[in-house]
Design a protein that fits this description.
Blueprint lengths: L3 E4 L4 H12 L4 E5 L7 H12 L4 E5 L5 H11 L3 E4 L8 H4 L1 H22 L3 E7 L23 H20 L3 E6 L2 E2 L8 H11 L2 E5 L5 E2 L2 E2 H13 L22 E6 L5 E2 H12 L4 E5 L14 H7 L7 H16 L3
Parallel strand pairs: 1-2, 1-4, 2-3, 4-5, 5-6, 6-11, 7-10, 8-13
Antiparallel strand pairs: 9-12
Helix pairs in contact: 1-2, 1-8, 3-5, 5-6, 7-9, 9-11
Length: about 325
């Protein structure tokens, strides 16, 4: 495999993926706008770790800048594209809706067009467990309908899946969407709860615990996510010969299109997650219990049968091991004894 483009390369998942691909001997171009949604210095430090690795080229730019993306694809002639760049965050979408349309819709269209114009062999893109929205049937399956998003972020991610299917159908571009479930680990995003909880607990500040800690999340460790992505890159989708237009399966298609969940299939209550974090930190949290926030869902749980069947992998890192590794990284990175 060669000629891989990873968008969002300075982001949490993007950084880990680029490093893994480079260590595996691939040639990688990283693309990122280095915006200030969260600490730009953290993004810069991630880039420092991969910038000098053999086979890596970094291009700074925004996905919504059509001319920049067109030039990126023309110059790169990529075989594979992994689109991880996006405006993330459910709550942030309540105050900044336009940034989600710019990056997640207009930006993704530019990626699709780049793939079409340069005959990319396989586009893998980040979707989200948020697309399940108002669904209450768990575990969430790719074969369930996802027509009731409860945040604009979720709506843009579902839109990405529909846009990708259109391009697979019209232009025969193999596309795979990956629905990530609450990814955590070293070098993570400061806007995520586990990261902000860690900072607050160590500083002796109160943490906000929504729905009184009774929400459940399918926390998925970053190394499991990366292993899943790497395996999927090589698993280029083909049309499903058994697909029936009269009884359409939303997870497959008569086009070269697939969607997979990547989650731990072991949802953990937020209260328990905080307990484990306290154990790893050796310090109790001061908690302020609050009601559910708009756009949030009560439970996420991934059915990963399809991923396991397709690429022989299912995430399995427990929160005890995952949070311990995160806390060790956090103390080292921020110089906390």
């Amino acid at each position: 495999m060669s000629g891989i483009l990873v968008t969002g390369a300075a982001g949490f998942i993007g950084f880990h993926l680029v490093r893994r691909l480079l260590l595996d001997g691939h040639t990688v171009t990283g693309f990122d706008n280095l915006n200030d949604y969260y600490d730009v210095a953290l993004k810069g430090d991630r880039l420092v770790l991969i910038d000098d690795m053999a086979g890596f080229t970094f291009v700074r730019g925004a996905l919504e800048d059509r001319s920049v993306v067109e030039r990126l694809f023309q110059d790169g002639q990529f075989d594979y594209v992994i689109n991880l760049a996006a405006q993330a965050g459910v709550r942030y979408s309540l105050q900044n809706p336009y940034s989600y349309i710019d990056s997640n819709i207009s930006g993704f269209l530019n990626v699709l067009e780049g793939c079409r114009q340069t005959n990319v062999r396989h586009l893998v893109y980040a979707s989200s467990s948020s697309v399940y929205g108002a669904n209450v049937t768990v575990p969430f399956s790719e074969h369930h309908p996802v027509d009731h998003p409860v945040s604009l972020y979720a709506a843009t991610k579902r839109s990405n899946e529909l846009m990708a299917h259109t391009y697979a159908h019209l232009f025969n571009i193999p596309v795979t969407g990956l629905r990530f479930f609450t990814v955590y680990g070293p070098w993570g995003r400061p806007d995520m709860a586990y990261f902000s909880f860690t900072k607050a607990i160590l500083e002796g500040r109160t943490i906000d615990v929504f729905n009184h800690g009774r929400m459940q999340r399918d926390f998925t460790y970053i190394d499991d996510i990366i292993e899943g992505i790497v395996r999927v890159i090589d698993h280029v989708p083909v049309p499903d010969p058994s697909w029936n237009a009269e009884l359409p399966d939303v997870a497959t298609s008569s086009a070269p299109y697939r969607v997979f969940n990547i989650g731990n299939h072991q949802p953990v209550e937020l209260g328990r997650f905080i307990e484990v974090l306290e154990e790893c930190l050796g310090k109790k949290a001061e908690k302020r219990f609050l009601p559910m926030q708009p756009g949030e869902v009560l439970v996420t749980c991934a059915d990963v049968t399809d991923l396991n069947d397709a690429v022989g992998f299912r995430p399995d890192t427990g929160i005890e091991a995952g949070l311990s590794r995160f806390v060790s990284w956090y103390r080292e990175y921020y110089g906390i004894v």
